[in-house]
């Protein structure tokens, strides 16, 4: 059983990440072990922390304070105001975390929220988001973003692209890989013996027989039928507006949606504070809280740690092989 600590990347220093880190230690210090990769000077004044030199020191350090693997950012933190000088350090925190899980020194990776514009402005960050950057660092071509909570698991088949670009980005190959990766992860990482997938249509009413769009008839339904013949338990394509009430959710283990908001609106409505972002298809476990940097409340003592607590718990459980 893997009991190595979870690597927690610092996220955007001007956001609520530095406030969340000591809250997470306080909530979880008797439950699991993790360490922050970041600059301890960015933590709120008086935060208990212990600087460590390697991940293996984190479990013992948890009894005294938040374990911090130092990564100086080179500039102070001002809550709510991103500093371009921090961008290179934020990126380095992610790179260091990936290196540690790939080497086996850390059991899993949990990432606090970044601000993509701040990284682009300060370090010419060229990736649409965290997920795509992690896929690049891991050297994999196709990963899947799952949002998971006790109420619902959803997977957007396309992620950080404009709605107008979805129909051409969504292809039989990409949807097939998304479904196969999701099915495999539900089996291997969430220990569901026979995963049940529900697939939303691209168009309103799943195209309503072609009157609201042809994609369901021309290729989505045939692809799902082909995958059923390989043994996957798949329902769909289904009208998205009837997939998320309680009785419908009881019929599947994960909902695969065609674009970002089709997936994220239901889970954030049903369970906003406990949603966790899980990246499937990586050669290591990665989770993240399902919220952003929250510049508007940073530094005001208003940050809610619930999603980050659940993200660390899920990373720990997935690394140990006990996630359900």
Tell me about this structure:
The chain is α/β, with parallel strands linked by helices and 324 residues long. The protein has two domains: 1-140 and 308-324, Isopropylmalate Dehydrogenase, CATH 3.40.718.10; 144-281, Isopropylmalate Dehydrogenase (3-Layer(aba) Sandwich). It has eleven helices and twelve strands. The chain has helices spanning 17-28, 58-61, 87-103, 116-123, 130-138, 166-169, 172-188, 215-229, 246-249, 260-271, 306-320, and strands at 6-9, 34-38, 49-51, 66-70, 108-111, 144-148, 153-156, 196-200, 233-238, 254-257, 276-280, 286-289. The chain has a twelve-stranded mixed β-sheet with strand order 3-4-2-1-5-12-11-6-7-10-8-9, with helices on both faces. Helix 3 packs across helix 4 (116-123). The longest helix has 17 residues, at 87-103. It starts with 5 loop residues before the first strand and ends with a helix. Belongs to the PdxA family. Pfam families: PdxA. Substrate binds at residues 130-131, 268, 277, 286. Its cofactor is Zn(2+); Mg(2+); Co(2+). Keywords: Cobalt, Cytoplasm, Magnesium, Metal-binding, NAD, NADP, Oxidoreductase, Pyridoxine biosynthesis, Zinc.
Fraction of residues in β-strands = 15-25%
Helix-strand makeup class: alpha/beta
What is the CATH topology classification name of the largest domain? Isopropylmalate Dehydrogenase
Mean pLDDT: 95
Number of domains: 2
Number of helices: 11
C-alpha end-to-end distance: 16 Å
**Radius of gyration in whole Å, from Cα?**
20 Å
Spatial shape: globular
> How many E-type strands?
12
- The CATH H-level superfamily of the largest domain is Isopropylmalate Dehydrogenase
Quaternary structure type? single chain
CATH class of the largest domain: Alpha Beta
Protein name: 4-hydroxythreonine-4-phosphate dehydrogenase
Cofactor: Zn(2+); Mg(2+); Co(2+)
Function: Catalyzes the NAD(P)-dependent oxidation of 4-(phosphooxy)-L-threonine (HTP) into 2-amino-3-oxo-4-(phosphooxy)butyric acid which spontaneously decarboxylates to form 3-amino-2-oxopropyl phosphate (AHAP).
Family: Belongs to the PdxA family.
